[in-house]
Amino acid sequence: MIISQSTMDVDFVRKVEALSGTSVRRCFQCGKCSAGCPMATFMEHPPNRVVRLLQLGQWQRILAGRSIWYCASCETCSTRCPNKVHLASIMDALRKLSWDAEGPSKESYVQLANKLFLQNIRTYGRQYEMRLAAVFNVKSGQFLKDLMLGPKLISKGKLKMFHSKNKNLPEIEKIFTRIEEMRKKGEAL
Amino acid sequence: MSRIGVFVCHCGENISRTVDVERVAAQVGKMPGVAFATDYKYMCSDPGQTLLKKTIQEQKLSHVVVAACSPRMHEKTFRKAVEAAGLNPYLCEMANIREHCSWVHEDKQEATAKAIEIVGMLVERVKKNRVLPTITVPVTKRSLVIGGGIAGIQAALDIADAGHHVVLVERDPSIGGHMAQLSETFPTLDCSQCIMTPKMVDVANHPNITLYSYSEIEQVDGYIGNFQVTIRRKARSVDEDKCTGCGVCMEKCPVKKIPNKFDCNLGMRPAIYVPFPQAVPNTPVIDRDNCIKFKTGKCGLCQKVCGPGAVDYEQEDRLVVEPVGAIVVATGFDLYTIDEKPKGSMIKGYGEFGHGKIPDVIDGMTFERLASASGPTGGKILRPSDGKEPKQIVFIQCIGSRAREKGISYCSKVCCMYTAKHTMLYHHKVHDGQAYVFFMDARTPGKAYDEFWRRSIEEEEAVYIRGMVSRLYQKGDKIVVMGSDIAVGVQVEIEADMVVLATAIQPRTGADSLAQKLGISYDKYNFYSEAHAKLRPVECATAGIYLVGACQGPKDIPDTVSQASAAAAKVMTLFAKDKLEREPIVARVKEAGCVGCFACKKVCAYGAVEEKEIRDRQGNLIKVVAYVNPGVCGGCGTCQATCPSKSVELDGYTDEQIVAMIEAL
Amino acid sequence: MKSTNSMNSTNAMNPKKAIYNMNETLKYSYYPGCSLHASAGEYDLSTRELFKQLSIGLTEVPDWFCCGATPAHNVDELLSLSLCAKNLEMAEQVEGDLAVACAACFSRLKTTQHVLAESDVKRKQVEKAIDAPLKLDGKVKHLLEILARDLGLERLAASVKKPLSGLKVACYYGCLLTRPPDVTNLDCVEAPTIMEDVLKAVGAETVAWSHRMECCGANFTLSRPGVVIQLTNAILESAKEAGADCVMVACPLCHGNLDIRQKEIEGVYSVNYGLPVFYITQLVGLACGLTADKLGLGALIVNPMPLLKEKQLL
């Protein structure tokens, strides 16, 4: 598919700039981000190309891909960018916009893990790796994943089977609902 | 009664967009003393100036106010026009309703009201303007050139060839600058030494050039045509007149292992040394920090072996004062280093490249010394750590340059070309080696430049990889280069034997303090500022001072040489006149009121205030008063503000004029 | 006047004494983070024991909750900022600067302060979400800063009972302690020395190695463990090559990947690293004379006991 002015969505670029608080236009495609990215080999578009596609307003191509979900948020790109483009924040913004569009990406495992993580916060207030891993395995259909690690971790006391209820749960729930309301009213992206 | 004419300019739409110029003209026309007021689209255009001249004569105007742009822009233009119409030019004032009004406001109503007030102030001021006679000053037809690199050498030779005397001041022991360090030069690959050293010798032999090497500018006084420059001739410890340059002292010096700065610290030199064999002057200098005699008082071998008795341990710094009419500044550049920079510095180093601690990561100039036939390795490319020939070599462009994160946003202009040259030199010297270049863009505008770059790829087989390097690290005796190729979209990892960084060009350390001595302006990086980027590229805003070469901005040799000749031509233009006209904006002492306290003399930055004796007819001294030498006065007005008895006034800026402006508000 | 004189004379006599007051007590509020209450219990235990040993006060923020970690900011910055802001607000109620053990929590809390100080829009949104006015001036400190700067290397060295002589440690910084530098402000972003400084103060040797700041894959351990195995292998390989006996970390996620997955990595790449992975508090605690039990050394997956016995540190 060729790129034409009808597929260049400048509003999307502005949205990303507002969410990430960094300039997309400042990037001059030196590729230093991709050179140092620990995850670049797992991405179909290396980081610099994600920014290039973004500069051209090609959000469909970005959101359909796996690249944004393979970013590890290690901040190497942001730290070394000669133009002070905060690429890690741009990745956050892109994932949020993908999330809002109900994840058109093929990369489902990372999204599932994120979803479960956030649900855990809302339900328990804190993370419990045991529960997180177990539910992840069930939902992703990988029942045997990391099975060998389990007993060892339990014997070392690393996976707690039981936990206490956090007293701040109602407060946490309020934060979640207030944000949902703000978004409904258009007060936040 | 004055008959003032007011001319309000639209400046295309620059002013009329936010200021109702017709209303300004109408309102100002009603002010007392104003005989005529009008508006016009472009006052500075030929028809605009004709309108001005015609109206002066027809309306018999006594004073003129042009309400337009900043006086910095067009005061000269309009004063000339007024003069052509038969009025004294200093009876014309400009009201700045563009920079001070239309450009900085949005509300038309308010901007118009402000414009009327600005013009009103100038109307009141111009009423108090006096006829001022033009002042002429003599021109000293000698020139100072600061910096003995290719820029300074070319300018000095051109001016000297035109028959004017030149004083050339060089900070280092020898002239030659960076160009003397280069191996071969782009785009023709001629040997730098071969084309440079004859010019250096020309400087030494030229009857019109006085060369002060190992010297620095201490102080600059005066003004265009009449500068007094104090030069510190640093103690060389060797008498230049007696020394024959035989070199026995250097052979006998027991301290031999001092890293030679000229060879980027790869080669060694003794404590008494010339930086390189072709040095001009070929007179050694004693590095007192490393000399045993100076450190312990013992040794003295060089003095004992010196036939002509030129070695002089007692020599001290000397100050010489040179009168000159023009100054050419050609102080050149330093290369950016990737070292850790002091906290709070605007410039940052490259931690991701090991802060300069990986021994076989070198800069472009170090590579030049390795490639130079007269360099520390005799022209062999050998790596500093173990002296082995690197078979895999990586060049990285834009180090420091175009990196606002590191504090520099500009392009250093020469690196694309010299990196291409480096790959060629490398290929010529290491036939079984492979060169890789990581780059963002190849910027090769210039005659035969792009072809040169292409040759490096197509014929010299350099592999160019478009993409920057994120990190360098040592792995065994290799340097791992983590880069990427953005065209393919993959990471590129090369295990290199040596890495050459094309580091940014920065102004010389201390460029700012020299600028302060000269009274010239510089930008945030300390590059000197030209008077106009396009139309006055080799002149400073400070009259009589000219800029050449990389001290003004990154520049290659062809551009630098052109600029040097351009600056020399400017100096010759100045020297073509015997006398200079200058603005009569100078301070004048009212002798009757002066009590001779000389507070003005203490504050005068130009040294223009002299003491004058007033005597009666019998010759009896009545009192001593201040006198301002109009040739020297800079017109700053500090004396006027200081004088306790209000006895000094600056012509064109008298208290009366200023008060009239304030009262008009 | 008199006091100034006496201070001057003390300074002149013993400049070092004047810098610290040895009797000054350090007190911190404490945000352990989820991992320290679950898989990284030994980090929590060793932190508490070490601080007790060094007489540094540590009061856990009551009912703190998850900072949102990477998943929250990955898909919902506003939620991430709000969760952190609320925790910061709760920490204000406890005396002292906020001590954080986990590099990810540290990064999130500092980022929140940084972003909200810079953006009025986001600040207002967060204030609305947590329904409280924001105060962003509370200091958030990683344990490393407390040991190296607040306590100071000299006082730390003075507390050493059993110097870790002969132990060659590869200090692993990972990503979020130093990056991005304008947020964490911990040390030189590309060439930090704070971990090495602390370890040298307790008598250990540190090795120079290339991968001390490369990413281990962090929370991909759950969703894409293959990624973690590849990245972590490169880190372990580099540490081993540099001649390290063990690795030291200051983050439970890094620890999980380097320690828990080490056996698996060795299997995949057919190598044998056998590198115990310690938390900073465990090694410093060991030097300060704490027992293996109090430091939770038994909870480490790669057994450190043979190494510690060989070096006569147990």
List the helices and strands and how they pair.
The complex is a heterotrimer of chains A (189), B (665) and C (314).
Chain A: H1 10-20, H2 32-36, H3 47-55, H4 59-64, H5 67-70, H6 76-80, H7 87-100, H8 108-124, H9 129-140, H10 149-155, H11 169-184
Chain B: E1 4-9, H1 21-29, E2 34-40, H2 46-59, E3 63-68, H3 71-84, E4 92-96, H4 98-102, H5 108-127, E5 135-138, E6 142-146, H6 150-161, E7 165-169, E8 184-185, E9 190-191, H7 192-205, E10 209-212, E11 215-223, E12 226-233, H8 248-252, E13 258-259, E14 268-269, E15 272-273, E16 285-286, H9 292-296, H10 301-305, E17 318-324, E18 326-329, E19 333-335, E20 361-363, H11 364-371, E21 392-399, H12 415-429, E22 434-439, H13 449-458, E23 463-466, E24 469-475, E25 478-485, E26 490-496, E27 498-503, E28 505-507, H14 511-518, E29 545-547, H15 557-575, E30 579-582, E31 587-589, H16 599-603, E32 609-615, E33 621-628, H17 638-642, E34 648-650, H18 655-664
Parallel strand pairs in B: 1-2, 1-3, 3-4, 6-7, 6-18, 7-10, 18-29, 20-27, 21-22, 21-27, 22-23
Antiparallel strand pairs in B: 5-30, 8-9, 11-12, 12-17, 13-14, 15-16, 19-28, 24-25, 25-26, 31-34, 32-33
Helix pairs in contact in B: 1-5, 2-3, 5-18, 6-7, 6-15, 11-12, 12-13
Chain C: H1 2-13, H2 15-19, E1 26-31, H3 41-53, E2 56-60, H4 69-75, H5 77-92, E3 97-100, H6 103-118, H7 120-130, E4 140-142, H8 143-158, E5 168-171, H9 181-184, H10 194-201, E6 205-206, H11 220-223, H12 225-241, E7 246-249, H13 252-260, H14 262-269, E8 277-279, H15 280-287, H16 305-310
Parallel strand pairs in C: 1-2, 1-3, 3-4, 5-6, 5-7, 7-8
Structural features, described:
The complex is a heterotrimer of chains A (189), B (665) and C (314). With 189 residues, chain A is mainly alpha-helical. In chain A, 56% of the residues lie in helices and 0% in strands. Chain A folds into 2 domains: 5-100, Fumarate Reductase Iron-sulfur Protein, Chain B, domain 2, CATH 1.10.1060.10; 108-184, no CATH class. Chain B has 5 domains: 4-127, Rossmann fold (3-Layer(aba) Sandwich), CATH 3.40.50; 137-228 and 322-332 and 514-578, 3-Layer(bba) Sandwich (FAD/NAD(P)-binding domain), CATH 3.50.50; 235-316, no CATH class; 335-506, FAD/NAD(P)-binding domain, CATH 3.50.50; 587-664, 2-Layer Sandwich (Alpha-Beta Plaits), CATH 3.30.70.20. By secondary structure, chain B is α/β, with parallel strands linked by helices. In chain B, helix 12 links the parallel strand 21 (392-399) and strand 22 (434-439). In chain B, helix 5 runs antiparallel to helix 18 and helix 11 (364-371) runs parallel beside helix 12. Chain C has 314 residues and is an alpha/beta fold. Chain C folds into 2 domains: 25-142, Glutathione S-transferase Yfyf (Class Pi), Chain A, domain 2 (Up-down Bundle); 161-310, Rossmann fold, CATH 3.40.50.11810. Chain C has 16 helices and 8 strands. In chain C, the strands form 2 sheets. Chain C has a 4-stranded parallel β-sheet with strand order 2-1-3-4, sandwiched between helices. Chain C is globular and about 55 Å long. Classes of the chains: A mainly alpha (189), B alpha/beta (665), C alpha/beta (314). Chains in contact: A-B, A-C, B-C.
